[in-house]
Amino acid sequence: xxxxxxxxxxxxxxxxxxxxxxxxxxxxxxxxxxxxxxxxxxxxxxxxxxxxxxxxxxxxxxxxxxxxxxxxxxxxxxxxxxxxxxxxxxxxxxxxxxxxxxxxxxxxxxxxxxxxxxxxxxxxxxxxxxxxxxxxxxxxxxxxxxxxxxxxxxxxxxxxxxxxxxxxxxxxxxxxxxxxxxxxxxxxxxxxxxxxxxxxxxxxxxxxxxxxxxxxxxxxxxxxxxxxxxxxxxxxxxxxxxxxxxxxxxxxxxxxxxxxxxxxxxxxxxxxxxxxxxxxxxxxxxxxxxxxxxxxxxxxxxxxxxxxxxxxxxxxxxxxxxxxxxxxxxxxxxxxxxxx
Length: 340
What we know:
By secondary structure, the chain is α+β, with helices and mostly antiparallel strands. The protein has helices spanning 3-19, 25-31, 38-50, 67-77, 85-94, 101-116, 169-182, 188-201, 205-217, 245-257, 259-267, 317-338; strands at 54-56, 63-65, 119-123, 132-139, 144-151, 156-162, 228-231, 275-278, 290-299, 302-312. It has twelve helices and ten strands.
């Protein structure tokens, strides 16, 4: 993309984020410092639309960014807007080391929501990540299965799961072989996330049965470590003109279930720096109209959790990225002073 096209895209995305209405070629021509005609801008917009960076909601209403357009903007054109001094001081006060871990996490999620007027999310810390060493399934009566888990912390867990029907020993041996082949040595939360992903992709009846049984086996194993705080859903009311009711209902359903949100937040535990998922990039239908900006936080040098902001794809990324980054720094610093 040449420099002039980048300038046009930058103006369009920034205007759309701020105002929420399709952007015309005339408006862009007026904002460009160069002497560029509306006709020239229209040609550039057509090229950007053809390349997939923009789309037209209606023939004559101007253009809006696509997910690809937002991605290019965030990675190439975005100028981060730092928090002001008062906001940083407020963060310092509200994330003080003398608070309990629970209070720090609650405060962090509330701060993120307050700073961005969007939804703040924080996962609870999980220390000493537990890995799978071996798993076995044994059929019981009345649609029950005994699951035996051997874990990396030398713990052996026995649990009973309930299924839609009885399963034969042969069927359960297939599940056992599948898990022991593909998931030994992986963390329990990672296994659960990958099983959910596999269930969405594989439509074979036998594999669906195996994946469903396997997924239920890890539900209680990860129950204590999969909690998160979600604050600020009321802020979405201010974006009502951009979001239809069905999109909101789908998102709130995801908040209630939490699993897809947690699976996405877990990705930040496995990558360095700021993680940004725009629209369909998340891979989850419930989040296809939303963006997530997330960053992992740490205790004693170990990455243990994630915090972030969820909002419409036209969120003010320059401010959200700054808010997430600074909040993570203060939260990690406070937790390191309060952790035993």
